[in-house]
Amino acid sequence: MNSQSTPDRRRHILDLDDWSAEELRTVLTIGTQMKDVLARPVKQVPTLRGKIVVNMFWEDSTRTRVSFELAAKALSANVLTVGAKDTSVKKGESLVDTVRTVQALGADYIVLRHPHSGAPYLVTQHFRGSVINAGDGRHAHPSQALLDLFTMHEQLGELADKKIVIVGDVLHSRVARSNLWALTTMGAKVTLCAPPTLIGPASYWKATWPNVTISHNLDHAAEGADVLMALRLQHERMEGGLLPSLREYTRRFGLNAARVALASPNVLVMHPGPMNEGVEITPDVATGPRSVIETQVTNGVAMRMAMLYQLAGVN
Amino acid sequence: MSPKQLMSEDEIRRALTRVAHEIVERNDGAGKVSLVGIHRRGVPLAQRLATIIGESENVTVPVGELDIGLYRDDLHSRGPAPLLGRTLLPAIDGRIVVLVDDVFYTGRTIRAALNELSDWGRPIAIQLAVLVDRGHRELPIRADFVGKNIPTALSERVNVVLNEVDQADDGVWIVQGA
Question: Which pTM value belongs to this model?
Fold first, then answer.
């Protein structure tokens, strides 16, 4: 979908489907330097001084929105955040109208969170600056996947042949899809684990990611895993009849201490947040010694700085 | 036109030895001096100067490294953002910081380095040591210590080769075509 396929011409970050391993390594290196910036006496550099970043969040979010705000501020950009509720969207303004307005006000970057898959691609056709996808429908969430990749790389080193298990509602998950692109490009072995209703047929996944493993049994999947990543279980999945009961889901697919014990002794427990503690992950595992869930949040700011920086030269 | 050599390995070594002694002489010893190399080739130069000063003065001179990428004034006109190096500084409050770079040209790199240093702390003084001064300043900045002054045309490029970075014999070359 992204027409700017070469790194030299990349103007937007919409998905990781066309990123090479080399590009991923570059952004990881830049992320390391950005993380250092956040540990300096003055946690701010003048890199994007005078630039305007507009966060357009047409869907609720805490950490992604706050993280992009902090990232833009750490780079000295002017940042403002608008949501569908506090704009003329309520009066019927279309996404494209809002984009034109934001452009006329001088925005250099739009960071878009939108419930509809593909919305950021539409925005690129009406905006002269750079667009960063902060999550669109069930399609992509590149900044989450990059911060996940950074966290894994920071803790585990090279990811080739590492066993990464993503458990939960992968069928509806943009986090899972963007992670699949990044992780398979880096040579990791990814297992998706979920009940059949939340994963669909294996052929659907293998058509795009031939080496992915599909599992319906977390006890098998967790064996020897280097990463156990739980996804948020959205409550509407229950109402949609995709799950018999939350309790059954938790029993078969929840991350608990017994399942962490099946994994590698150095396993990383991850979750993109927000967590339903007691549903997809038990509280003791979420805050336990193998959990890097808080590190993911910290790294999120650094990686979003890296993303904004990478687009600076073309903006 | 083929590259012309302006400094050999020996000349670089002698120039650095002289600069090291000038730094000590100017600052009444090396007790307060910290060296900060600017990425990339300023970093090994700072380490070499620290070694020379350390041997002659019997002190350990703190060495840091600075990447000015986030402080550039031309980021938005350069195309894709360049890769960043590590910035790792010793304590600079109350120290005499000597910035070290390989080629001194427009002065814009040094301007960025000065801004970055002031976000890190408040040194007693900041001085500048360079291996080569090729002229063509665009800012009112001068070097305190110069290995060699080399008049150049704008169309020329000065290439510094250092063993630590380039895995080749040291040398300074001038090449046609900027």
Answer: 0.92
